[in-house]
Amino acid sequence: MIRELEMQEMDWTALANPSEEMQRSWLLQSTTLKMKTYVQKKKTYAWTLAFIGVLVVIAFTMMTIRALTHLDHYQQQPPETYSIALHTGLKFFNSQRSGRLPEENNVTWRGDSCIQDGKYPGSSYPHLSGGYYDGGNAIKSNFKMSFAMTMLSWSVIEYHSNSADTIHDMVFQVGHEGTERYCWIRPEDIDYQRHADICFSECPDLAAEMAAALASASIVFSKNVAYSQKLIHHGLKILYKYAESSMNTHTSSSWDELLWGGVWLYYATGDVSFLDRVTTLALADPSGVFSRDSGVFSWNTKLAGAQLLLTRLRLFLSPGYPSEEVLRKFYNQIGNVMCSYLPSFNKFNRTKGGLIQLNHGDPQPLQYAANAAFLAALYSDYLDASDTPGWSCGPNFYLTYVLRDFSRSQIDYILGKNPQNMSYVVGFGERYPKRVHHRGASIPKNRKESCKGGWKWRESSKENPNVIEGAMVAGPDGHDGFHDVRTNSNYTEPTLTGNAGLIAALVALSGQKDNLDKNGIFSAIPPLFPVAPPPPAPWTP
Fold it and tell me: Which residues does the Swiss-Prot or TrEMBL record annotate as the active site (predicted)?
C-alpha cells in the first residue's frame, strides 16, 4: 500500500558549535579516521543525520551525526575529489529542513516553514512540524526519510568509525502530491492545511523501515547509552511487532522490509530471536530473491542491502548452525548481485557513457547507481577484511578491485565524467544544473507568491536565484541526455534518498580499504560460542 502510494511521485550541514539547547536535542558523535600519507592534516566535516518517526504520541525525532571523513587514492581522479564531493553533498540536507530552524542552519535563503503541519480540525497528529522534505515539492515522507537515515547511519557504522506499548496507526506522509505540485511557493510561505496520511494495518513495510532506521541509529549513538537504549526500547520492538502482525493483511512486496528491519534489530539488540526470524526460509524465500529487481537497492526494495548485512555476519562471526544454511544462501545471492553489476554479464543495460540502468530505463537513475556503488564498495571491503581476495561468478573468479572500479565508475559519472561533462551534484565542479526542480531554490527569498502566482518561477528559463548546494539531481535519460529544465522533475529534482545513497558511496570510496570497522556493528551481540574454560592449575606432585 505504502509503496504504491509513494511510487506515484516519480519523482546537513555542520552543527560545529551547537548551543546548549541544541545539544540536548541533537546528539553529536565524532570519530577520527586514518588518512593517507599525502594528506597533510585531517579534514573535519560535520554532517547531519536526521530521521522522523511517528508513533502514537511522538510526532518526529531528529538526530545528528558528526563525523570525520578521509581520502583515498584513485588514479583517474585527484585524491581529494571524493572528499570534496562528500563535503558538498552533505550541505543538501540543511536545505531540506522543515519546521523551526536552529540558529546554526547556514542556508541563508531558508527559514522556518510548515510550523502548523498536522494542525487542523479533527487531527489526531497536531504536532507534525519538523523533519525534512523529501524532494523539491515540500512533501515529508516517513518512508523515504527512514531509508535515508538508515543509509547514512550504515555508512557511519562501517567507516567511522514520548512512546506507546502498541501501535495501531502511523503517519507515513505529510502533504499531498497533487497539492504540493500545483502550489509552487516557498515552503516558508505555506499557509494552507497540510493533512497527514494515516495507515492502520496496511503498512508493515513502513513500520519495518522505521524499525531499521531506529536500530541503525541506536548503533551510531551507542556511546550515549541512555539515548541508544531509548531508541531500542521505545520503538524498535514495537515497530517490528506491528510490521509482523500486519503481514497477514499485506502483499508479499513487504517481505524484504521485514528482512531488512529484522537484520538491523539483531545488530542493535543482540537478541537472537531476530536472527532466528531472518534466517528462516519462511522469511527469506518470499523476499524477492528471483525478481527482476533482485540486484536493485533503493528505498522501495531492500533485499540486496539485507543480503549484504547478513553476509557480513557470516564472513566475520560465522555463527554456524542453525542459521548457516540460510546465511550461505544470502552469501551466494549477494555474490550474484555483484556479478550482475559487472558489464560482462549484461544483466543491466548501460548507457554509452557507462551509467548502469538499474531502474530499467525509467527516469531518475542516479539514486540507484549511487546505492549500487555503495554496496559494491562495501562488499569489496568485507572481502578484503576477511582476507578473501575475490568472489566467483560462475566459472570466473574476480578480484575485489573490480568492485571498487565499478563503484568509482558510477560515482565518477555522477561527478562529471559523462558525455555531458556535467556534474549532477549542484555546487560541485565547474558545470552543474542551474534550474533545479525545487520550490525554495527557484523563488527569491522573501518573495511571497500565491499558489498559481508561483508558476512563473517554475516555468522560467532563468537560473535558480538560490543555489541548493550538494543536491544530486535525478539525472540523465537512458541515452545520457540531460535537460536542465525546472519543469521536468525526472531530470532536475533532488531527493533525500538519492543524496543519502551518494553520501554513503562517497564515504566508502573516500578512505583506505582498511578503514572498515569490522566489529563495531557487532557490539551488542553476545558471544556466539561458549567461552573457553580457564586453564587448569599448574600440576604439582
Answer: 437
